[in-house]
Write a structure and sequence with these properties.
CATH architecture of the largest domain: 3-Layer(aba) Sandwich
CATH superfamily of the largest domain: Aspartate/ornithine carbamoyltransferase
Radius of gyration: 19 Å
Largest sheet: 5 strands, parallel
Helix content: 25-40%
Order of helices and strands: HEHEHEHEHEHEEHEHHEHH
Number of strands: 9
Mean pLDDT: 93
Distance between the termini: 23 Å
Number of domains: 2
Bound molecules: phosphoric acid mono(formamide)ester
CATH topology of the largest domain: Rossmann fold
CATH class of the largest domain: Alpha Beta
Length: 318
């Protein structure tokens, strides 16, 4: 595997190998070893054309914990504002010796374009491209679910995951459906009809327009924010009306299974898609997702840049 652009790039076996490596790194971190020499001498570029808190910081932390050098590039404040193209930006970073480029871009397909272009020789990791995919978010979400439900070998069969909210504009939803289905989970997409993409059932999920009908059957309630920045139209009458139908409020929280968990990729809009009591409840895995993101991204960097396909502790320098 040279690039990670889509969950479709991964076989089930490769996905499980990445998650297994993440678990090894998670265990090592528990033992207080914070930094490993695995990527010493390698340079990773965070190439972010869109805002990010979790993904950018998490990749930076992951790369530094593997002893790589990290260059952070943000389109804001760069020569992109003077009209510099993706090609020239990428080639400038390549000239600085990038071994890995982590790209977030508002255009679906930008990561694929960079990987296929021949402009750079570095490995490319998609950190979110338009409404298309966000594969490392899906990997960290499946890791978090498997760890919570103590699933061996990341087999999620028998679990039902409800993804609730703005599915239409969500790269997180698409990557999650693809990976959760690969790992055996059932997935229900829950949203008003206007926020479900045409053909969503072909991803392997079922569709429900009623959060109230679905909620009592879910093992995982994954809430998503409304992506106003990608909307050029009105998709629901008002935010209040949307929230009444599709928000995880206190009444719905009380109707969840006792064993069910709440997830959100962030950033959360409290009071819209999730209430504060749901976000902060003992069933919430939101901060656990953030912590796990670092281990999963370390594992992805290791598998792309660090050596052979199958990680062992000695190969990782543990
Ligand atoms: N989950 C996620 O992609 O968050 P950021 O936009 O903060 O990176």
């Amino acid at each position: 595997m040279r690039h990670l652009l889509s969950i479709n790039d991964l076989t089930v076996q490769q996905a499980r190998e990445i998650l297994t490596t993440a678990y090894e790194l998670d265990r090592v971190s528990d033992g207080q070893i914070k930094k490993l020499p695995t990527l010493r001498g390698r340079t990773i570029v965070n190439l972010f054309f869109e805002d990010s808190t979790r993904t950018r910081i998490s990749f930076e932390s992951a790369a530094k914990r593997l002893s790589a050098d990290v260059i952070n590039f943000s389109a804001k404040g760069s020569s992109v504002s003077k009209g510099e193209s993706l090609k020239d930006t990428a080639q400038t970073l390549q000239a600085m010796g990038a071994d890995g480029v982590i790209i977030r871009h508002h255009a679906s397909g930008a990561a694929q374009r960079l990987a296929d272009s021949g402009w750079i020789s570095a490995s490319v990791i998609n950190a979110g491209d338009g409404t298309h995919e966000h594969p490392t978010q899906a990997l960290l979400d499946s890791y978090t679910i498997a760890r919570n439900f103590e699933r061996e070998n990341y087999d999620l069969s028998g679990l039902t995951v409800g993804i609730v909210g703005d599915i239409l504009h969500s790269r997180v939803a698409r990557s999650n459906v693809l990976l959760l289905r690969k790992l055996g989970a059932s997935v229900i997409l829950i949203a008003p009809p206007t926020l479900i993409p045409v053909g969503a059932e072909s991803w392997g999920a079922t569709v429900s327009y009623s959060f109230d009908d679905a909620i009592g059957n879910l093992d995982v309630v994954m809430t998503l924010r409304i992506q106003h920045e990608r909307m050029s139209n009105f998709f629901f009458p008002s935010l209040q009306e949307y929230s009444r139908g599709y928000g995880l409020d206190d009444a719905r929280l009380s109707r969840m299974k006792g064993s069910a968990v709440i997830m959100h990729p962030g950033p959360m809009n409290r009071g819209v898609e999730i209430s504060s009591s749901a976000a902060d409840s003992h069933q919430s895995l939101v901060l656990r997702q953030v912590t796990n993101g670092v281990f999963v991204r370390m594992a992805v960097l290791y598998h792309l840049l660090g050596g052979p396909q199958s990680a062992t502790q000695s190969e990782m320098g543990i």
